[in-house]
Design a protein that fits this description.
The protein has 5 helices and 14 strands. The chain is α+β, with helices and mostly antiparallel strands and about 230 residues long. Strands 1, 2, 3, 4, 5, 6, 7, 8, 9, 10 and 11 form an 11-stranded mixed beta sheet that branches.
Length: about 230
């Protein structure tokens, strides 16, 4: 059983709470070997040929549309008890994806040097994660969302000792999920809903009382596939 600090907001003020976290240690590889696998298995640059998306998860053709470039940071925190993935929960009043669990990230701005710069800037703005704690180690597959974004997932190692400061307008909470849980295929489930009269499937990673789904869950599944041990 692991204990992790969860940064949440109570009456508008940031508070740290201790949450118990369970991890499946049978994810196939752990410790320094896992970190080395992350460095070697991920793409060194975004690959336009490796494109997933909400359509692919649902088994539908890729929609042809103009896409808005965006990037997210996939932060892997190097905890002594085992690496974990840092996620956020969006506030309920947001117009897009209210209350959903997501990575820090957003649309690219003209002043951004590229997707890495976008991801790091958004992480600083949304949760106050300083760049000096972050080491970019690779990229997941590009992801096209049903809302018209082309997202570059930027994977990074984060050294412990950082302090977070949440943007109260966008972020209700920041929390961590053991990487071992993410890598366990037994935790990858599917949900569905009717959209315009058609059933659409999506990935779900139910963790404790949290419902990680949609693009965030699909990117975590993509990470797990890339790090899966060889047969």
């Amino acid at each position: 059983m692991l204990a992790a600090a969860v940064l949440t907001r109570i009456d508008g003020e940031p508070r740290f709470m201790i949450a118990e976290m369970t991890a499946d240690t049978n994810a196939g590889i752990s410790g320094s070997g896992l970190l080395a696998r992350i460095r070697t298995r991920l793409a060194l640059a975004p690959d336009p040929a490796s494109l997933g998306g909400d359509h692919a998860v649902a088994g539908l053709p890729r929609p042809e549309r103009v896409l808005t470039p965006a990037a997210v940071l996939v932060p892997i925190v190097l905890r002594a008890e085992g690496p974990s993935v840092l996620l956020t929960q969006r506030t309920e009043h947001l117009l897009n994806h209210p209350g959903q669990i997501s990575f820090p990230g957003g649309r690219s701005e003209a002043e951004d040097a590229g997707p890495v710069d976008t991801a790091l800037r958004e992480a600083e703005e949304e949760i106050g994660l300083a760049r000096r704690h972050v080491e970019v180690v690779g990229f997941l597959d590009l992801y096209q969302t049903v809302t018209g974004f082309l997202v570059t997932p930027v994977v990074a190692f984060v050294e412990p000792g950082f302090a977070l400061s949440l943007d109260a307008f966008e972020v209700a909470e920041a929390f961590e999920v053991p990487l071992a849980f993410v890598l366990d295929a037994g935790n990858h489930t599917r949900g569905s809903r009717l959209v315009d009269g058609r059933e659409r499937q999506f990935y779900v990673l139910p963790y404790q009382d949290r419902y990680i789904w949609g693009a965030t869950a699909a990117m975590l599944v993509n990470l797990a596939h890339k790090l899966a041990p060889d047969d």
